[in-house]
Amino acid sequence: MSLPDNFLDLPAMEPPAGEVQNLDNPPNGNNTVIGIYSVCIALASVFVVLRLYAKLIFTKTARIQDYLILPTFCIFIAHCVCWLKMNGTTGNLVHTWNFRIGAMAPFYKNGFYGLQFYSAVMLAIKPLILLEWIHIFGTAGRRFTWLCYILGTINVLTYFIAITVDSSACKPRAAWWDITIQGHCINTRNLPIATGTINAVIDVFILLLPQGIIWRLHMSRDKKIGVALVFAVGLLSCGAALARMSLGYIYSDSKDVAYFFSQAGLFCVVEMTAAIIVFSAPTIPKPLGNFAKQATSSIGRLLRSFSGGSTYRTGAVDTKANAYVHIDELGKAVPLAKLRSGKSGESAKSGQTGQKRAESIETTADSVV
């Protein structure tokens, strides 16, 4: 059966009662999409750069997950490019009845590849987080370690199946986004429900796994709260995952597929960004704290030089006490040894005690960051 000459100019669907159709200049959410994606790209970029600096340069303790985060981040950027390119079609967050049939193909083509990139990011980032949990909380026991491995395996299998099914759902593949191409497609509208549910469950486990261990650490209550908050960034990821799961149910029953398809992308990018932050955040406080101390020390020396005061430096000789001073993690001065005193043994012993105390605190902090 031949199609009418003006087929591509026809509306994709009739508007529901009470809605006014606008095919020429429909209202859209392009600015909303640009704003959300810009913030997410900026946040993810900052945290990935800080993570790589912390592991590759500051501590020089890079592991396999630190090398894998870079290609994962590149795929994240590829998703963002695809979704932002949808602004150049009829637009993002546009109701289906405001689309012309001919405008659906470029919209869905970008969306198709954007979804594949999203699935690839989620396939990788969750196991990276779990590997990081195993490293940070390695003393938690074999049960914790095996639970992380099991969750990571389930996640990889889930998204591998999702990518395989979605990318091979139509023969030829272009029939996925272009209804004018004759082909055969299987129904995959329930696929987001399955992947969304499994994804949300894994996110909840990733969020809860470290919390009990954190509160058993030998740290001050304030520091425990601070560390717990770093890991609780996962709440944002869980919220986005639950929202995307809910959209999966709405999408499967709704005729306004273009609008909800576009809306799902916003929750996808928020979820990916939160996952990248969860992976990166635990390693960042230490180099940032060191940078802050150096900056504070430099500013202090500069101010004292202007005021004509004496300049004191960590490791410098104090003219009053003639002692070498070590600043421990708590910010307290611990005398390590008298430099010109016959009682150097006693001072050195005192310094060793202080140094051990500082190292003990630092070791506890290192088990978290």
Automatic annotation (TrEMBL):
Keyword flag Transcription regulation: no
Q: From the UniProt entry, list the residue stretches annotated as the region Disordered.
A: 341-369
Q: Name one Pfam family in it.
A: Fung_rhodopsin
Q: Where in the cell is it found?
A: Membrane
Domain Rhodopsin positions: 50-288
Q: Which residues cross the membrane?
A: 34-54, 66-86, 115-134, 146-165, 197-215, 227-251, 257-279
Membrane topology annotation: Multi-pass membrane protein
Q: Which family does it belong to?
A: Belongs to the SAT4 family.
Name of the protein in its database record: Rhodopsin domain-containing protein
Q: Which organism is it from?
A: Botrytis tulipae
